[in-house]
Amino acid sequence: MTIKEEVVVRAQAVHAYLEQCLRGRNIPGRLLESMEYSLLAGGKRLRPVLLLNWAELFGLQAELATPFAAGLECIHTYSLIHDDLPAMDDDDLRRGRPSNHKAFDEATAILAGDGLLTEAFTLMFSSPLPAERVLKAAACAAEAAGGSGMVGGQMLDMLYTGKGGASLEELRRMHSMKTGALIKGACTAGAILAGASEEDVSRAEHYGRSVGVAFQIVDDILDVIGDEAELGKPVGSDEEMGKSTYPSLVGLDESKRLAEEYAAEARHCLECYNGPQAEFLKKLADYIVHRIN
């Protein structure tokens, strides 16, 4: 299989769990419909796939970490619902379909995001693993998603947008929080759940940090040169909104070079590991750089 096919296969396993994980929880029908509308809309499932592969690298069966991985995807999905709201990025499309507030309404979209964020921790704490590992991994996920991570990064994005933009250093900090923190958290949590050593957890964290930066740089590039049909959302929206991006600050060629550099840094973190999980993670770093959506 190609790396893209491998990602699809692994994502399908996560998707199958997501299809049933919110059922039977006494969630009002319209709210459940809105939550699942976004949660089951597809996507690469990058964060849960990363978590499961780092867990497997250190000997944990993927099935045992799947509830936690699903919780992480719920957090990611809630962030997309809220990012699309008129008060934030005001996007009408997500993954080729009307964004949640367009398909339902703003109030329902807000509550769907709130519901997914809260249910995420119900899923994480249902993981059939030693409590100390689950608690440590959940604290890692919470930090990645909170004010010093994803939410703080979104705040910085809003502060910089249309107000003269950000410097390169400010852009790096914002992206490391808004996009990179949850990707890094996925890798780190996977290693923690498997009971990996501190040194191994540190390598997982370093890999996640590097892959997260590469992912965001490529996102910025695709907003300039990507295909709207492939992306499932409009291109050129960053420039239209007055956002600073890697291409706007350093140009397309330098942006591509930086993405390759961070992917190489991620691969370097895996040099001491062997086996299919390590090979997959190495190829995944390259796939992130060369993806078209």
Topology:
Elements: H1 3-21, H2 29-39, H3 46-57, H4 62-83, E1 93-94, E2 97-98, H5 100-103, H6 106-124, H7 131-145, H8 150-160, H9 168-193, H10 198-225, H11 228-231, H12 237-240, H13 246-250, H14 252-268, H15 276-290
Antiparallel strand pairs: 1-2
Helix pairs in contact: 1-4, 1-15, 2-6, 3-4, 3-9, 3-15, 4-6, 4-9, 7-9, 8-9, 9-10, 10-14, 10-15, 14-15
Q: Can you describe what's shown?
A:
This protein is mainly α and 293 residues long. It has a single domain (3-290), classed as Farnesyl Diphosphate Synthase. It is 72% helix and 1% strand. It is built from 15 helices and 2 strands. It has helices at residues 3-21, 29-39, 46-57, 62-83, 100-103, 106-124, 131-145, 150-160, 168-193, 198-225, 228-231, 237-240, 246-250, 252-268, 276-290; strands spanning 93-94, 97-98. Strands 1-2 form a two-stranded antiparallel ribbon. The longest helix is centred in the last third of the chain and has 28 residues, at 198-225. The radius of gyration is 18 Å and the shape is globular. The two termini are 19 Å apart. 45% of the residues are buried.
What CATH architecture would you give? Answer: Orthogonal Bundle
CATH superfamily: Farnesyl Diphosphate Synthase
- Structurally, the number of domains stands at 1
Shape: globular
Helix content: over 70%
Please tell me how large the radius of gyration is: 18 Å
Give the neighbour order of strands across the main sheet.
1-2
Helix/strand order, N-terminal first: HHHHEEHHHHHHHHHHH
**CATH topology (level 3) name:** Farnesyl Diphosphate Synthase
* Class derived from helix and strand content: mainly alpha
- Helix count equals 15
In the CATH hierarchy, what is the class?
Answer: Mainly Alpha
The major β-sheet equals: 2 strands, antiparallel
Distance between the termini: 19 Å
- Estimate the mean pLDDT confidence: 93
Strand content: under 5%
- Uncertain runs are none
> Got a strand count?
2
